[in-house]
Amino acid sequence: DLYHALWLRPEHDSARLLLLQVLSAQNRGEQLVVLLRDYLRFRPEDESARLQLVHWELKLNHSAEAWDLLAPLAESKPVNASVLHLLGKLAHLNGQRANAEAFFAQAFAIAPPPAEALPEAAIWLSRQGRAGEALKYLESYLKTHPRDTQTLVSAGILASQQGQAAQAIAWLEQAQKQAPGQRELSKYLGLAWLKQGQKDKARSELKLY
C-alpha cells in the first residue's frame, strides 16, 4: 500500500522525506513519532531517521524514549558527535551531572553541539570556565527560541558575569514576565541592576529574594 511504498522501500526515500517535511512543518509531532518508530522497526540501521525521531521525542518531552534510542549509537564507530551531545543533554536533564560532563567533554573534542543541545552544552562550557563561548551558544539558541525561560535565565546570569549588565537585565526581565514570582530570578535581576548602579531597582528586586 501507499504507506509501505513511502516508508519501507528505499527507492521512495524522496517521497518519505517529503511527507516528513510536511508533517514537521505542520508541527504534528505525535504523528511523526508514531511513523518514525514504525519505520525504524523495519530499518533500524537508518541512523538519520533515528536522530530525527530523537529530535521529536525531545520536543515532546519523552526523555526516556530519546535515551533508549541514543544509547546504542554511543557505541558506534566513528563516534557521532551529535549523539554524544544529545546524550549529554539527556544526562543533564536527568540530573546525572557526571555522565553529562563525560559526554560533553567527548563530544566537544569532535564537533560543536547541534541546535537542540545548545542550552545544556552551554552550561557545561560555563562550568569549564568558558563563559564567553557558552554565552554565544545561548544567544544563538535564543534567536530561534526567544521565549525559552530557562535559557533566558541562563543567558542573563552569564551576561551579568561577563559584564554585560544591560543585556542581562533585558533577558532576565523577559524571563520574569514569563515566569513571575521566582525568587531566585529576582536575586539575579537585582544583582544585574546593582552592576548598572541602579541601587533602588536592585533593592526592589533583592527584597523579593
Describe this structure in words.
By secondary structure, this protein is mainly alpha-helical. 72% of the residues lie in helices and 0% in strands. It contains 13 helices and no strands. It has helices at 2-7, 13-25, 29-42, 47-59, 63-70, 81-93, 97-108, 118-127, 131-144, 149-161, 165-178, 183-195, 199-206. Helix 5 runs antiparallel to helix 6 (81-93).
Q: Which descriptors apply to this entry?
A:
0% strand; mainly alpha; elongated; 13 helices; 209 residues
Short description, anyone?
The chain is an all-alpha fold and 209 residues long. The chain contains 13 helices and no strands.
Low-confidence stretches: none
Main beta sheet strand tally, sense and closure:
none
Rg (C-alpha, Å)? 20 Å
| Distance between the first and last residues' Cα | 62 Å
From the helix content, strand content and strand pairing, which structural class follows? mainly alpha
Shape: elongated
Count of beta strands: 0
Helix coverage percent: over 70%
Q: Which percent band covers the strand fraction?
A: under 5%
Count of discrete alpha- or pi-helical segments spanning 4 or more residues: 13
Quote the average pLDDT.
86
Order of helices and strands: HHHHHHHHHHHHH
List the helices and strands and how they pair.
Blueprint: H1 2-7, H2 13-25, H3 29-42, H4 47-59, H5 63-70, H6 81-93, H7 97-108, H8 118-127, H9 131-144, H10 149-161, H11 165-178, H12 183-195, H13 199-206
